[in-house]
Structure formats: structure tokens, C-alpha cells
Batch of 2 targets.
Target 1
Amino acid sequence: MATNKNNRPSNYVILTLMAVRDGESRYSQSGKPYAFVRAFLSQGMNKQTEEYRPSLFFDVKAFSPDEEMSEVVEDIADIQKKDRFTVKGRLGLDEWTGDDGVKHQQLVIFAQSITPYVFPTEEGDEEEELEGEPA
């Protein structure tokens, strides 16, 4: 796998997203826990046209290496709809064929860490967490 000068994989990303659904945890057939959440990244408004650019949607996933639930798996499972969070991990693409024979693709981030996103206050020294719809 190609790496950059920080010795991270070239597909390493750090993104701040908003959850579209609550996080879920499950167990694989081999008994190992994993979790996932559906989230989006707003690209904001085009200042020239004053129209919003399309949002990018991701599945954020994490897998435990053994039967114990890892911290990142627990963190993803605890995410609630509309929570904002920062994820660090590898960007990938899930591909599958549906029951109707149609091929599908979905961007996925294989999470290495998750932290709640906290908006800075106007003073800039303290931080507060805001709730609600994206701007």
C-alpha cells in the first residue's frame, strides 16, 4: 500500500461528518463485533450561484480484531442521528450486486478513531457543542 511522508496510507482521511441515522453494532459470522453509521459531508454553497453543492454520503465502519468490542466500534455504535463527529481512517469503496443484478458502489471510511465534533465559541478559547440541522 502506498504511503505518504507521514507513513500513513495514501487513502488516509480526516473528515467531519453528520450522522444521517443512529449508529449500529452487530456481530460477524465469526463472532467479531463491528459497527457502522451512515453520514454526510456538506460541500456548502456555491457563492456565485448561491446554490448548495451536493452533499457526499459515506458509510463509516469499524471492526474489532477479536470478540471484545473495541473502543472505536463502541464509539460508532453510540452515534445518534444528527451528531457531528470527526473520523480518521482509510477511504474505500464497497461494491456489490443487488438481488436485481444491478451493481452498486458506496464510499466507505474504515474508521481508526472517532471523536465528537465541538464547535469553537466566538471567544475562540472555549468550545461548546451545538445541536441541530446543518447550516
Note: Residues 125-135 have pLDDT under 50 and may be disordered.
Target 2
Amino acid sequence: MKLDQLNQFIQHNIVWVALALISGTMLLWPMLRRGARSDGLTPGQATMLMNREEALVLDVRAQAEWDKGHIPNARHLPLDELDQRMQDLAKFKSRPLIISCAGGQRAGSAGARLKKAGFEKVYVLEGGVSAWEQAGLPLAKK
């Protein structure tokens, strides 16, 4: 009897039920994505890692993006040069690396490559330099 009532309710309110399912999925999506990538850091977490463990920030954006502003003391290594210059980073294999880009996509790709190359502590700055800036943290232009 109760199942029939539920079916009848859903049929009469299909638009509202669909809207509730879609909005619930949209609310859960960021949490589900973050769970898939446990190596992501918020700007606040990245700052703490930089201060406490002397993490190196590696910016993989293009030169023009870097010139507009970057995280202070970050090293610039464009993503398309990462494989050729991987040996330049070998001395940082045991040091925490925070990979940043504009929004987080390229950093994820770079992070996967670095982990595959044997880097132990690789983290991705969630939201990239955009999130850093939105958090009110400084950008350097030198």
C-alpha cells in the first residue's frame, strides 16, 4: 500500500522530484570529486604545508599566465616542459611538492606524472592560483 502511495506521489510531482535529485547531486559532486583525489589541498592547507614542511610550489602554467602573477617563491615549469626537465626536480623527490596551475586541471596531470616518476609527496592546489587569489593570499609578479 505504501509503495503505491510513493509511486503516485512521484508521478504527480515528477518535476519536483527530479529537481531535488539534481540539486542533491550538484551539492554532493564536489565532495565526491575530492574523495577521488585525496592529494588536493586548499590554499590554507597549502600555506601550512609551505610553512611547516618547506613544501615547494611548482607552477605548471604557461609563461604568459605566470607573468600575470604567481604564488610567492614558486618555481615555474610549464606543463609541456615537465617531462624534459624532470631531472631538474630530482633533488626534491622527498620534499613535499604543491603543484599549481590556473584552476587545478593541469596540476592534476603534472601531479600524476611526478608520482609516476617517484616523487613521494605530491599535492595539487585545489582551484589553482584562482583559488589562492580568491582566498586573499598574495601573488608575486617578479
Note: The chain has two domains: 2-36, 40-134.
